[in-house]
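[09:14] KT: can someone run the structure on this one? pasting the chain below
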Amino acid sequence: MIFKKTDNKGYSLIELIIVIAIIGVVSTMSLLSINVLFSAKVKADAQTFNAEIGLLKEDRYTVPSDLITGAEKPGCYKSIRLYQNTTDGRLYVQKVYYDPTSGAHYIEASENRNGSAGLKLTSYTSVTYVEQKTGATYDVKGGNDVRIVFNKDGTVHLQSSTGKYLGAGKFIFKKRNGDTVSNVYLRANGSHNVK
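[09:31] RB: done, structure tokens below
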């Protein structure tokens, strides 16, 4: 009986290269899938924000009411506020009302989403706001919030004390890494869209 001697010392270099290449392809596909998922969530947030603007414009004739007392606030305007919550660091869209006499905004009685914090956007989203009138740019975070108020004729309300449009401009929706995903445009004449 003749025994054949085998010299099996492990994997060949070719086999190792093939395994490493397969791992690389799978890792790349996973990263691309995650990137696409994050982009889709940010785009959905932009569409949600644009829809909230549309709902506000349709509801501009309704008299707002106070969250605490429930009393109607004639002479005030329904509005929305885009802001960053200091507790969780996420962006929210909150229904508020604007009092032109004092220039202050208060939480609207109909705002019962997330304990009156507003409609929560995903944690992947950040927003930069570019004001239409002045071109001033700032990130919506910390104390930098944007409030949108419509006049009864459907135009964006001009706050007389500062001469500043409240919310007319471009809202740049970005992922956390800073890549722009979508833009929401709100013009002084009240028209708005997402691109």
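[09:33] KT: thanks! The two ends are 79 Å apart (CA to CA).
[09:34] RB: yep, looked fine to me
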